[in-house]
Batch of 4 targets.
Target 1
Amino acid sequence: MGLELLLNAEMRRADAMTIADGTPGRTLMERAGAAVTAAVARRCAAGERVLVLCGPGNNGGDGFVAARLLAARGHQVSLALLGDGAALRGDAALAAAEWTGPVAAPGSVAVEAAGLIVDALFGTGLGRDLDGEALALVERINASGRRVVAVDIPSGINGDSGAVCGAAVRATHTVTFARRKPAHLLLPGRVYCGTVEVADIGITDATVAACASDAFANAPPLWRGHIPVPSIEGHKYKRGHALVVSGGPTATGAARLAARAALRAGAGLVTVASPPDAVMVNAAHLTAIMLRPMEGAAGLARLLDDRRFNVLLIGPGAGVGQATADLVAIAGGRQRSLVLDADALTSFAGNAAGLRQVVASCHPAAVILTPHGGEFAALFKAEDEVVRAPTKLDQARRAAAVTGAVVVLKGADTVIAAPDGRAAINENAPAWLGTAGSGDVLAGIAAGLLAQGMNGFEAAAAAVWMHGEAATMFGPGLISEDLAEVLPKVLSRLMGATA
Ligand SMILES: NC(=O)C1=CN([C@@H]2O[C@H](COP(=O)(O)OP(=O)(O)OC[C@H]3O[C@@H](n4cnc5c(N)ncnc54)[C@H](O)[C@@H]3O)[C@@H](O)[C@H]2O)[C@@H](O)CC1
Ligand SMILES: [K+]
């Protein structure tokens, strides 16, 4: 199954195109219900009690199909319908007509008596916050502690944003159709889904391609072909030279973490540019990484006269203020690839327009911005269309469009967005990746990949994935220093898979 993610409207279009191409909607619903049936059957002993809760739309229709097929397999099925059976329309009405068992009112069923619950209340058609009977039912499902298989999306989760609309079903497993939706990856939706399975209901790859809008799950097939594989004929100077700007004497560790990650990610050479009063502190800790003194923006400008520095990383430990903003501005004028993190971003708080100028002055080199949520909100506080965007995916995309840079909006569900509209949602970061200095390492990996000539979007997406993978491989107890040391294993797996 492809990595595309389908928004609610895109999924509706894909359904409609498939129907227009000759597959009746009722057939799609039958396949959807059959996939749910198979998922339930894998989790339930024959004869176990299954409660199917149907809503008023086609999500409920899938539930009616599943109820019929589960009963035919010998399960004890009871079914409740939210709303009036006479109000069902189209394919849902047809599917309901084929269910010959009783249809109960939700208030009259004992939710906790079921071995497993099928949640077919709302899917991509959820139009507003749950209230009244729907809200009460969802609360009863969650309080029951029963296993729940959700149809398409746990009811109450917005498929585009992953937001909880009033309340939402906490599922143990979710069966979705054709492709995943952003809500299966974005928080909090992802945790409400449990495990997620994508069922093929006959929507072709071509139809998905025609309907999808360049949003993907972040995984190696998106960028593996762009990962530079060192050649025996190459040499270190061909793998780029990253320059990482250090903070003052008491704030040097962040830059060194980033520099080591850049080197481990494959940059040919890495140099730390250090304020003169921090040179000795840096010197005491660096071996393979080189060190150059640098005094303010003028000092950075002099260093950049050396064209071999093809990537600059500014931000980790840099300090917030005009001095850091000046470094960024100097770097911008030199057409080098740029990774801006942490304090470099906060030094432009409320001044995304200023950052846009810097990005434009780097053209055609790539610029990657790596804010976490707080830095993002500060940076874009004057850009209403960014901060008020309805989903994290939209926020990152609009930020990329506004700045002209690749934006990595970090979190457990990091979104990577390019100015051309491409976006990827990451899902491999373990909880223990949230540790001091981990962002510095991410920025360093991105710089290391850019140094080797990767494009901005691919470098950023690969860096985010490699960072998550390194943390997963290391396991709990991880500290940021460990990440770079696991990168060789991550890289050899990636390169092994390319060969
Ligand atoms: N042909 C198709 O379009 C297919 C659709 N499928 C299923 O159909 C679902 C989408 O169906 P629909 O577009 O009918 O949408 P849903 O079934 O998700 O929900 C729409 C219905 O819920 C009501 N509703 C929305 N929000 C509500 C709220 N907060 N409180 C109370 N009522 C609310 C609406 O008035 C409408 O009656 C998918 O998630 C999927 O499960 C599958 O059967 C595959 C084929
Ligand atoms: K559902």
Target 2
Amino acid sequence: MIHARGLRRTYTSKAATVDAVRGVDLDVSPGEIVGFLGPNGAGKTTTLRMLTTLLRPTGGTATVAGRDLLAEPAEVRRRIGYVPQGGTVGPASRVGDELRLQARLYGMDAAAARSRVEALLGRLELAGMDARPAASLSGGQRRRVDIAMGLLHEPALLFLDEPTTGLDPQSRAGLWEHVRRLRAEHGLTVFLSTHYLEEADALCDRVLIIDGGRIVREGAPAALKAEIGPGATLDEVFLAVTGRELREQGAAA
Ligand SMILES: Nc1ncnc2c1ncn2[C@@H]1O[C@H](COP(=O)(O)OP(=O)(O)OP(=O)(O)O)[C@@H](O)[C@H]1O
């Protein structure tokens, strides 16, 4: 579903040259839930923005959802959903209106947009929220609306940028359940960045740890923990690999 080789991004300005991503190889199979972890400044957002066609790589190649990232970015966009960190719905907008508008922008006619939005609201346990302004929803409900927004055009692959930042533990666990269900019922492939190691541990089939613009470790959470020793946590794996604690980084961010 994602195959990247030697992906790089150098930011160049008069003041400085920053090698943000220095040759990333990664593979994600259909139906996998993959977590992307790293300390602040490691290159997560830059990589995510490249894989979602928002930022042009300065080197390397990739196919995303079966299309060449550099040669066919519009075809990639058609096949992926992207839920950015800041949310997608204005606070005063009514949930259903915003979703239907977006569906029309994807080219659906009014009837198709109505039924697609109704189905998605049901699927994400948001039935009854159609006429509510986004500002009146809980944090967890708002994040589910963002996910619905990313799924309107039925992408096979969904990118989530720190989907549960700011949510309380219960809403966070609720969102994991929704992501799992979308995978189980619709075969969705999910690539998510997160600052929460317990999230990566609970939700992801596999995690990739990036540091200094390079992937420094990857594997299933259980296998990575077993390498450290009996009873090890993913926090300990992260500390061993990067020399830093992710939790503090996340809190600082
Ligand atoms: N537009 C830009 N111009 C110059 N440097 C940039 C730009 N965007 C990011 N960088 C630098 O590139 C590096 C990687 O940044 P990136 O945002 O990808 O990291 P990140 O892992 O997402 O960090 P965080 O966890 O803090 O969001 C950092 O050193 C950052 O300062």
Target 3
Amino acid sequence: MESKRPLYIADADFDSIPETAEEGAGREGNNRRSGQEGRHQTSSSPFAALSTMSTYDQELAAARKAASLAARLCQKVQRALLQSDVQSKSDKTPVTVADYGSQALVSFILQRELPSENFSLVAEEDSGDLRTASGTETLRRITEVVNETLANDGSYSSTLSAEDILAAIDSGKSEGGPVGRHWVLDPIDGTKGFLRGDQYAIALGLLDEGKVVLGVLACPNLPLASIAGKEDSNKGVGCLFFAKIGSGTYMQSLDGSSPVKVNVSATENTEDASFFESYEAAHSMHDLTSSIAKKLGVKAPPVRMDSQAKYGALSRGDGAIYMRFPHKGYREKIWDHAAGCIVVTEAGGVVTDASGQPLDFSKGRHLNLDTGIVVTNQKLMPLLLKAVRESLEEQVSSL
Ligand SMILES: Nc1ncnc2c1ncn2[C@@H]1O[C@H](COP(=O)(O)O)[C@@H](OP(=O)(O)O)[C@H]1O
Ligand SMILES: [Mg+2]
Ligand SMILES: [Mg+2]
Ligand SMILES: [Mg+2]
């Protein structure tokens, strides 16, 4: 049964946030910080900063609402996925009714909640294929599922036409860049995981003058409890991670439980540090990450997972390292990392390219990267970068 409760999340919700993730969710996992030694705790209450800072609060509330509602849409489509809901894009990657529907819904909600003449959205999908004769049925399904989701939520009285849906999707064509504010959206990150019934995420970030200032990750198939050491990690109602610059990272269940603050693993011991990587070998070189893990003495096998759910899981200490090394020639997109990056950094982690440089989200729709992306805590990063350097050198010399 779908809940009909509107998803609007007011600032007052922060009043009930418990002090730690353990308190709120009764989670397992033994490799996290014992106390709240987070960088942003300047007062006895972890929420003082949130309640006094007004910057980006409205934007964050709108982003949480948009991502939560988009997650409901995706869950509905995933439950009843039809073969006709899946298309292939010109670059041969898959796209579904849910990718388009999620993008239309998030775009609609952001524009409704935050009316602005300067609305700018950098998003993955466009309506090109939907405007062709073969896209007509897909567009009908998208329109239907978006309107059903809006009607079930009940906060808006609007019914969107097929033209409104196309326009909402195409608002995502912005080029982003270093000036002004730009929303960055991956309506379904990990479409291949979504199709397999595995992990996927709705990833929404906000850039202000080229920097990510807030991020929301809705992960409908990620359990609220730690997945560290678990075989079956696809249960429960799903998680919503959110972070605002200078205010830490919080997690709540997608059905609206109280948010809890999360922190990355504090482990300083590489042997205990399990690592995440893409499930898809085509997205990241598994042989290279295996050589890096070996140099670090990592004992556990890699945790292979689709989407930015990896950043979410890392932000709460389910594992300590995430490595991503695309095959030669691939250009990373900003929507694949913007939300995940701030979710991890606000939880005390570090995200860099393979040479240790921070990711630069100000260059347009792509990231200009040196080889790969690595993520871990501050203590482990120098060791990880050293192992990466050595493994990359060995890879070059073996050619
Ligand atoms: N050859 C490739 N190398 C690296 N990443 C790729 C790729 N082809 C697609 N991707 C990206 O990898 C993302 C999924 O990452 P992951 O492997 O962590 O699940 C995809 O996001 P979408 O699913 O939104 O298209 C897509 O942007
Ligand atoms: Mg895609
Ligand atoms: Mg993606
Ligand atoms: Mg996507």
Target 4
Amino acid sequence: MRAVHFGAGNIGRGFIGLLLSRAGYEVCFVDVNASLVDLLRERGQYTVTLANAQADAELVRNVTAVNGTNLEQVAEAIAGADLVTTAVGVSVLKHIAPSIAQGIRVRLRASAAPLPVIACENAIGGSTQLKEQVYAHLTPEDRVLADGLVAFPDAAVDRIVPLQHHEDPLQVTVEPFYEWVVDRSAMPSGFQEIAGVHYVEKLEPYIERKLFTVNTGHCCAAYHGYLAGCSTIQEAMSSEAIRAEVASVLQETGAMLVRKFGFDAKEHETYAAKIMDRFTNPYIDDEVVRVGRSPIRKLSPNDRLVRPALLAHELGMEVPHLAAGMAAALLFDYPEDPEAAAIQALIAEHGIHHAIETYTGLPGEHPIHQNVYNRYETLKLTVKR
Ligand SMILES: NC(=O)C1=CN([C@@H]2O[C@H](COP(=O)(O)OP(=O)(O)OC[C@H]3O[C@@H](n4cnc5c(N)ncnc54)[C@H](O)[C@@H]3O)[C@@H](O)[C@H]2O)C=CC1
Ligand SMILES: O=P(O)(O)OC[C@H]1O[C@](O)(CO)[C@@H](O)[C@@H]1O
């Protein structure tokens, strides 16, 4: 079995590539980082180390790579694949869509076998978004053919993989926990299930629970940690005030999730507590600027801060801590992150109300907008850098 995986980065190598290889796939990574591609081709294997006391290691074999700029080779790989996956970042999906479309065009004429394409990104409906972008590059005739053969099941992926600092550029250290959930209802019939993947009939509760607990809590720890002068999530979580703030955020999203999906409140509490422990894993040094990266994406209406706040608001719940998380994101003045720099430039030019409205979509008269503004003004006075 052959899989083509876009993005040989932290999640690509440390999670998706590892699971696919374990499940018996030959994994062909597609990446635009030429040195990474050359090394993967040359060695055909790499090591994944667990962030635990024993530093358990596993050799991932049977891998190769092609450069994403070589459209012909990418198309050829897709034409012969049983599965396509991605972990490039949701904003990069539009850049890989043309080559996936070209691969699908070749494949539609070469094989009648069904092809699942699964985006493993931190987003609601990642594969659905990818499908729209890929279909924009197909003719109406090819779209009809693709409707019959190519499926885009949405997925939720959960494993913390920090930035890597190893002598060996292919080695990747990952937290022990992982969960890959895929919408079975969108998988092509007869597809052989991938070992290690949890298939569900309805993905929404899983993706929202994961995004609004792991990712909401994590980015709040990152933004508050950054403002307090911390460099890692572990350092931020060792501050009682930040830990309490993150726990309060998770109480707000948890109350909403329990109401919306009917989760058992006690079980959800256990789920959230486990996530708090994952944030404090002492064998990981996870930089706050990685976890807080791309604040415009994270502040967008369908992402981890605004969406759970709006869902809670619709249910009549107050969200002061989510509002504080949004305010902290707006204060994430990290010049090396282009989105953070753009936020600061917009605030400087047009003011904070304009920025809240632009990035969160919350109009000035919305109570959450007012709450974010109030928190922003208070938090601004506490910034330690
Ligand atoms: N790191 C983590 O703990 C987790 C990350 N994710 C999600 O996984 C995705 C990837 O994240 P990371 O692995 O952390 O990022 P990363 O930056 O380590 O990896 C992304 C890879 O994509 C490659 N890439 C960029 N543009 C490309 C293109 N046009 N064609 C092919 N490859 C391209 C990059 O060269 C890089 O190797 C993101 O959506 C992220 O939200 C999800 C769960 C956990
Ligand atoms: O990858 P993103 O969406 O920028 O956000 C980083 C998040 O992804 C994770 O790496 C894993 O879900 C978390 O560590 C963090 O919450």
